[in-house]
Amino acid sequence: MLLRCYAFVSWALVASYLAWPVDLRQWPFLAVTLGAAVPAVILALRRAPAGGRTPWWVILIGLVLYNIGNLIWIGLTTFGGRVTGDGSLADLFYAVGGMFVLGSAIALVRQRGRGDVGGVIDSVITAVALGGVLWDAVLLPALTAQHVAAGRQASLFVLVLVISGTLGAMVRVSLTSASVRFFTAGVALTLGGNVASALTVDASGARPDWTNVLFMAAYAALACAAVHPSVADVTTPGAAPKDDLSRGRLTFLGVMLALTPLVGGGRAVLGLPTDGVLIAVSSAALVPLVMVRIARLASQRREAEQALHRLATRDALTGLPNRAACLAELDQAISSASAPGPIAGSRSGAGDLAVLFCDLDGFKPVNDRLGHAAGDELLVAVAARLGACVREGDLVARFGGDEFVLLCRGADAVEAVSARIADMTARPFVAGGVLVSVGVSMGAARLIVGETTDAVLGRADLAMYEAKKSKSVGALSLVLA
Under CATH, which architecture does the 323-480 domain have? Predict the structure, then answer.
């Protein structure tokens, strides 16, 4: 209801602005800019979540500065001053207020678009490119004809590019939120007001009164964003779409990147006014964005490759190396251990490499009695304790089910590791919220020179089954192959 009432009143004032007598038009203008926009943003500050109020604080400061400029402007026009562009104190407040409004838009993009950085960058590239075309094909010829000073041209050029880029990012993040769409419309109308003012200013520096309609509409749109029920969405991270830089999308970005210099070069060939320095600046502004985009894509590709490698070599439950990684590591260890040593006929690591094949005793009853979730919890706990039983450089892998393979180095590896495992299994585990006990049957096999991976694993596996059949008493049953 509040949104409807505000929208009706504010947009009615915007639509009827030019119908008011000239000497009374400051009142509907102030009603929209001061009497509604500022209270609406204050309301948004109260309704926005605690961690998402930054854009509203920034825009409130900007609107206050704008309205100070408006009051000064109304004073100037009331007493015979010019509307704008006169270098007065009002223009100073407009400029600083505009920086704050722009800052609030950037803060919004930063918070809402952090899940879609690639898409936001693409939108900014597109918008900056189109802003450069707007400048070169529309604004520059008009400013040249008006003999506007170079400093004024440069400041307006920067303003157009920055607002264009911000607007492009806001369009990207506004797709799923009505409040953000109103916010985006306010920024777009601000850009439209600045462009219209630049194009229509007369020789005395005054602009037509109808341009105020665009600025009033901008205030009204920002206020609608503030009073809309979805105001909390303004700083809520948006969806994170798949960042897929397809061939078509890459081609489109390439066209956008080349658009500004192509338009500028075409105008130069035709003998039309063009500013090579400013066009070069706009093109250069796109280079860092493109570099960031490429760097992000390269980083995402590395992360994807690492994720695939983890999926291929890691057990999803325990995080230990899986069967494939265990076999690959054992192949490499056997090759290194079987390499010729410094003494003729010797092997550099033969006899120091031991394979320990472990199988849990009592795991199935726990899994059947407490459920698979408890069984998984037990496997994770066993994996963590096994990892603490080996030394740096040794390997613990989940071979499958409740079987684990340890690859250890050192002449005393079997004795030292088995003692730690016996101590580990002597202490109960927590699974499914209760204390449970399991034992370990372990078969150990030392590497024989010239032996294959399958052979040494087979000996350790057979020794593990012998341990299971043994009558050993205790939490650990160990058989040496």
Answer: 2-Layer Sandwich (3.30)
Q: Is 26 helix (H, G, I), strand (E, B) or coil?
A: helix
Phi, psi of 20 (to 5 degrees): -75, 150
**Which one from 402, 423, 454, 461 is the annotated catalytic residue?**
402
Specify the higher pLDDT residue, 244 or 425. Answer: 425
**Residues in the chain, total:** 481
Tell me which of 56 and 441 has the higher pLDDT.
441
- Report residue 447: phi and psi, to 5°: -65, 135
Q: What is the per-residue pLDDT across 78-137, written as a single tens digit (0 to 9) for each?
A: 655 444 444 467 777 877 887 888 788 888 887 777 767 777 777 887 887 888 778 777
Other CB atoms within 10 A of residue 383 CB: 18
Indicate if 461 belongs to the active site: no
49-63, 132-146, 169-183, 436-450: which is most confident? 436-450
Output the pLDDT for position 346: 44
**C-alpha–C-alpha distance, residues 19 and 14, integer Å:** 10
Please give the structure tokens belonging to residue 463: 């020794």
Structure tokens at 170: 């806001």
Among 85, 55, 360, which Cα is nearest to 204's?
A: 85
Taking residues 396-404, report their average pLDDT: 93
What's the pLDDT at 342? 45
Residues 227 and 136: their CA atoms lie apart, in Å, by: 38
Chain mean position to CA 179: 21
- Which 8-state DSSP code applies to residue 33? I
Helices (H) and strands (E) in the chain, counts: 17, 7
* 83 in Cβ contact with 73 (< 8 Å): yes
One-letter identity of residue 298: A
**Band of pLDDT at residue 343, cut at 50, 70 and 90:** very low
- Whether 197 and 207 have beta carbons less than 8 Å apart is answered as yes
As given in the structure block, the two tokens for residue 174 are 């506004």
Distance CA 85, CA 203 (A): 11
**If 0-12 CB within 10 Å is exposed, 13-18 middle and 19+ buried, where does residue 25 land?**
middle
Angle at the Cα of 91 from the Cα atoms of 85 and 93, rounded to 5 degrees = 170
**Region 212-219 average pLDDT:** 90
CA gap 161, 151 in Å, rounded: 16
User: Which has the closest alpha carbon to 183: 111, 92, 253?
Assistant: 111
